[in-house]
TrEMBL record, chain A:
GO CC, alphabetical: plasma membrane
Protein name as catalogued: Sugar ABC transporter permease
Family (UniProt): Belongs to the binding-protein-dependent transport system permease family. MalFG subfamily.
Lineage, uppermost ranks: Bacteria, Bacillati, Actinomycetota, Actinomycetes, Micrococcales
PANTHER family, per the entry: MALTOSE TRANSPORT SYSTEM PERMEASE-RELATED, MALTOSE_MALTODEXTRIN TRANSPORT SYSTEM PERMEASE PROTEIN MALG
Localisation: Cell membrane
Classification via InterPro entries: BP-dep_ABC_trans_perm (IPR050901), MetI-like (IPR000515), MetI-like_sf (IPR035906)
Keywords, in A-Z order: Cell membrane, Membrane, Sugar transport, Transmembrane, Transmembrane helix, Transport
Native organism: Brachybacterium endophyticum
Automatic annotation (TrEMBL), chain B:
Compartments, as annotated in UniProt: Cell membrane
Protein name: Maltose/maltodextrin transport system permease protein
GO cellular component terms attached to this protein's record: maltose transport complex
Chief location of this protein within or outside the cell: membrane
Amino acid sequence: MTTPQHTSRRTAEPTPRRMPLGRWFAEIGWRHLVGFLAVVFAVFPILFVLSASVNPLGTVSSTGIIPKAFSLEHYRTLLSGEKGPFLRWYLNTIIVCVVVSVAQVALSVLASYAFSRFRFTGRRAGMLTLLLIMMFPAILSMIAVYSMISGLGKIAPMLGLDTLPGYIIVMLGGSLGQVWLIKGFFDTVPRELDEAAIIDGASHWQVFSRILLPSLVPILATTLVLSVVGVMSDFLLGSIFLTGDDHKTLAVGLYGMLSGDRSNNLGVFAAGSVMIMVPVIVLYQFLQRYIVGGSTAGAVKG
Amino acid sequence: MTSTKAPGHATRSSTAPGLVLRILLLGAVLAVTVWIVPVMIGQRQWLWLAVTVLAALGIFVLYSTRRLVPGKYIFPGTFFLVVFLIVPIVLTVGYSFTNFGDAKRGTKDEAIASITSNSVQQTANSRRQALSVGVTGGFTASEDPADYTFFFVDPDDHSVREGSSTQAATAADPDSITVTDGRVSAADGFTILTAKQVNEVYGTLKDVGVETSDTTALRPQGTTQAFEGTKTLRYDAASDTITDSISGAVYSVKKVGTSEYFVDADGNRLPQSWLQGVGAANYVRLFTDSSIGSQFLRAFGWTLVFAAGSVLLTFLVGFALALVLNDERLRGRRIYRSVLLMPYAVPGFISLLVWSNFYNRDYGLINQTLHLHLDWFGDPTLAKAAVLLTNLWMGFPYMFIISTGALQSIPKDVLEAARMDGASRLQATLKVVMPLLLVAVSPLLVASFAFNFNNFNAIELLTGGGPFPADQYTRGATDIIISMVYRAAFGGSGADFGFASAMSVALFVLTGILAAVQFRFTARLEDIS
């Protein structure tokens, strides 16, 4: 989080033009060349999707990186619901992502607080067990989860198979998935801070909610965004549990649409992808500083 | 869990709103428990009953006292973790010792009822009944016949009966049933399906027989009617045999493979079996059946190559870019970083589906742009390369980000000192920067390996495990273990959940070993302070 990237950028204003061209290329120019190649590699699939989404023919064979014609036909088809209730899927995805991510981050934050600030029997074993369990591929116990949810649907129909709430609570199985990361954030806040508060008469809940939580809000917001994208990408659970067209999420719905007629639905699929991808990319650009900090907080601590 | 030294312990501040909140919470838990427990008992959902009672007890113990502070914070997440990750794992281990699968779901009694009821044949004096089908909860197009309850109205005396594939027909309680135009149109606790919905699941419904006596049963005939007929197969409890009243064949219980079936003297068996324990048979099959064993081993080999290759490639590319672009004299570093972050922001399922289009032989972007004619997904080696290339695109931005972060956290004076001692730029990079950086990022590399080890989406959405050899469908060239197990459990016909569970348990164990290695490898874990 405290990488010196901004200060260092300002202190060393580059002055390449003073060097002779040959030396400039040897020292700096080749870096631009490598950077340019990397940018091409990183961006061409994204450009392809953009291009395919406005290419009126909408077949794989007629689409390149640069669109040869422009039309918003695919967006119109998509929003009209001809190929499936796209807006409904969008709404479902937002509901699922928000509920699951908020719950995941909130429950992880609670547990991380305990793991970071209290000393209790089984704490170390608990942390290690958590790591072990999160590594287990949950997909493989899907048969069991399926029959559990089918049973739950008989008790409370709204939580059964092919319902959004049922899918959401299954996804909540990963509620403690962020504990390791967030505990790392808690560990960076000096303990003297909460000890002082305790001396002043604060309870453990007040220490948590008034002192620690506010100082971690930016990094937790970033964790939330990363978690949203993770939840959005779930395909397998969704494809098993959500079968009704109105209950699908974007991943399940768009996959079904594309695999139904891969060649002719490409344009519509691309239009849908753009509408999902662009908001996320923009969000990531805004949060870039925190994302870079967040991904490395664990790494550089070691 | 006993807490020592917990902050807040010394200060027993008890605010009035806090107390009210606590009482409200405990009251709500009690109310929900009292309300839902009878429903669970009625539906025979013992597992959920246990979950509910234990959770309610846990909440009362934890939140009614001032002690057990860490438990209060850990409980909510742990509840979901236990119910949706740990319980399923335990159940899966249990399944792996059974023959659980298609036609092997219920008890033996249910199997007998279903076998005999299904043998119902229409006779001259068969009576027609008006049929309605109901489900508890919402309509979900379930393929399990036991999920449907059938309501029959007799056209002559207007008596109403209800029953299912596992429950013999009984007279329905007239107060809970609404009959309109000679058909059941509503029933308490059930959603009556519309004609369209019945039609949708008719494939499941058409073979269901609802027992009305030891020798008769009701069967659907079309979506709105049923007939009452005579069973041709009859069960005799004393000898535990089923007799065919037309051909005279006698079926007795015999073991075929690992499961018991009803088998006649000529060795013909009735298709329906029941859930039985099979001991370690599934494991024996996994480790001794040479074709499955070698498939599993080969999948394991490719899984290791795939996971290690993905980590290595993404890290090398990401790290090299970080080194190249982290020069302070370079203009536009921020722009490079923004753009290179983009693949990381695209949701994975979109990336994979888009890339899967690029590899098309005839009109895929890669072949067209490079004027190649490679059959990417038709050739095992090319398909593997395609998987790795795609995973490289998806993964290198992450490695670029963490490498950049780690590079910037290396103190400047370390580098300056090395340069001062006469090290060239390259030497300083290799001998000073690299080791420092590897120490910092190695836990993330190991975590990335573990993630890719079970990266189901990367395989399933890209190649679907293909290409498959002409003669077998259990494992394609790009199948890693997890996608292979998935195919065995859910793909194709005749799901064999018992065997798939045994494979899952084997993969659980492998993952556990991997985790143990990771624990060893990750020094960071040693200082969970």
